[in-house]
Amino acid sequence: MKVYAIVLAAGKGTRMKSDKPKVVHEVLYKPMINHVVDELKKIGADETIVVVGHEAEQVKALLDDSVTAVYQKEQLGTGHAVLMAKEALGDKEGMTLILCGDAPLIRAETLQGMIEAHEKNHNMGTVMTADCDTSTHYGRIVKEDGQVTGIVEFKDLQPDQMDITEMNTGEYCFDNKALFEALEEVSNENAQNEYYLTDVIGIMNNKGLKVDTYKIDDFNEVGGVNDRVALEDATKMLQKRINHDWLVEGVSIIDASTTYIGRDVEIGADAVIEPGCIITGHSRIGSHAHIGAYSILHDVVVEDGEQIDAYTKR
């Protein structure tokens, strides 16, 4: 089955206090939007649409020819944003992932898991969810006999819903045609005069279509980055994840807390990385290589067994 993806990346990100659109800001030396798009490439998405808006040209400049950018002139809600992709995807058979451009820690393995669950359970809609503390201000999942009947925003929770701990992460998988048919019925008759993607869940229920959840263990994968504090937190989380994975793979990182390795770097077994190094881009570090302390390497190739002096910059 064909897999399409729509990445929502039109927002300004006011809390960033920046002239740049939010998704252009970097997490571990890579723009947020590229983190998301590259994970979609890993799962082999057949077509990826990025919805751009604020300072659109800055976002488009980061996308290659495999990605289609569509413009949302006015930000009228998440449902309206997804509708911007109708011309490109509306009549196609398959499933469509909807992802947030400001959630850069998502993994390809998580997306693949949601796709497989969506297919296996014959869903028309699948909502990615995670468990949370009851005080967390995220929308909650309302179910009846295993069917997702609605998503209730935290401020709208009724007394008998306050103990629900399964929350909406804002990432979804839908049957493509069913999605766009439901979006045509979404109204903006609400306090914000916006078109909410979450209203699709109720519309699908009214049509008797199956909507289920795919629960993940690590909410940090999908937590949105809305300000500079969250940006730094995301960088630290990704740094720790990547360094842990390389340690498990047989790479010696002398001080993981001061070593920054980009997501697209490849390192051979028995390589040694001294403290304070920053290795980014599509760098390739050979097996048994030794990277001296406080080296900064970007898009370099270090051969097997090669020694890099401390404080090298290239």
Automatic annotation (TrEMBL):
GO biological processes: cell wall organization; peptidoglycan biosynthetic process; regulation of cell shape
Domain of life: Bacteria
Keywords: Acyltransferase, Cell shape, Cell wall biogenesis/degradation, Cytoplasm, Magnesium, Metal-binding, Multifunctional enzyme, Nucleotidyltransferase, Peptidoglycan synthesis, Transferase
A Pfam family reported for this protein in Swiss-Prot or TrEMBL: NTP_transferase
KW Cell wall biogenesis/degradation (keyword) present: yes
Subcellular location(s) of the protein: Cytoplasm
Major location (coarse): cytoplasm
Catalytic activity: N-acetyl-alpha-D-glucosamine 1-phosphate + UTP + H(+) = UDP-N-acetyl-alpha-D-glucosamine + diphosphate; alpha-D-glucosamine 1-phosphate + acetyl-CoA = N-acetyl-alpha-D-glucosamine 1-phosphate + CoA + H(+)
InterPro entries membership: GlmU-like (IPR050065), Hexapep (IPR001451), NTP_transferase_dom (IPR005835), Nucleotide-diphossugar_trans (IPR029044), Trimer_LpxA-like_sf (IPR011004)
Required cofactor names: Mg(2+)
Nucleotidyl transferase domain sequence ranges: 5-225
Family, similarity comment: In the C-terminal section; belongs to the transferase hexapeptide repeat family.
Task performed by this protein: Catalyzes the last two sequential reactions in the de novo biosynthetic pathway for UDP-N-acetylglucosamine (UDP-GlcNAc). The C-terminal domain catalyzes the transfer of acetyl group from acetyl coenzyme A to glucosamine-1-phosphate (GlcN-1-P) to produce N-acetylglucosamine-1-phosphate (GlcNAc-1-P), which is converted into UDP-GlcNAc by the transfer of uridine 5-monophosphate (from uridine 5-triphosphate), a reaction catalyzed by the N-terminal domain.
Annotated protein name in UniProt: GlmU protein
